Model the fold of this input.
Amino acid sequence: MSSSEKQKAGLPGKQDLEAMSLFRYELRKFLRVSEEISNAAGITTLQYQLLLHVRGFPGRQWASVGELAERLQAAPNGTAALVSRCEAAGLVTRKTDKTDRRQVQVHLTAKGERCLLRLAAEHKAHYGSFGRVFDEIQA
Done:
């Protein structure tokens, strides 16, 4: 099949495959470094991600378990268990929503906030490579 036939069929070309490969490579490097940073701080990468999503949720300082499950792309019951582990570690606290008593808000504790900010600062140093990758993919 010629390259023009592949293009008409919607198949990726060589440039697309190179861009996808580069993106996956850079993503994998970042995830490996993220794992090392989190583990050195004594928490798992999932715990770090939960803290990040709680504090980074748009427009407020907390997130519900369902919202966190969506952000983590995880099952709600697994996310609830992760919240419980973070709560036991003193990183988060649960609060019942005052307007909807069925909803539980997850908030960072002072310890969780300090942990998140320290780890996020370390992670931020590695984000620069993503800008370069996206620039190369779009080129």
Remarks:
- The chain has one domain: 15-138.
- Residues 105 and 132 are 36 Å apart (CA to CA).
- The two ends are 25 Å apart (CA to CA).
- The chain has a mean pLDDT of 89.
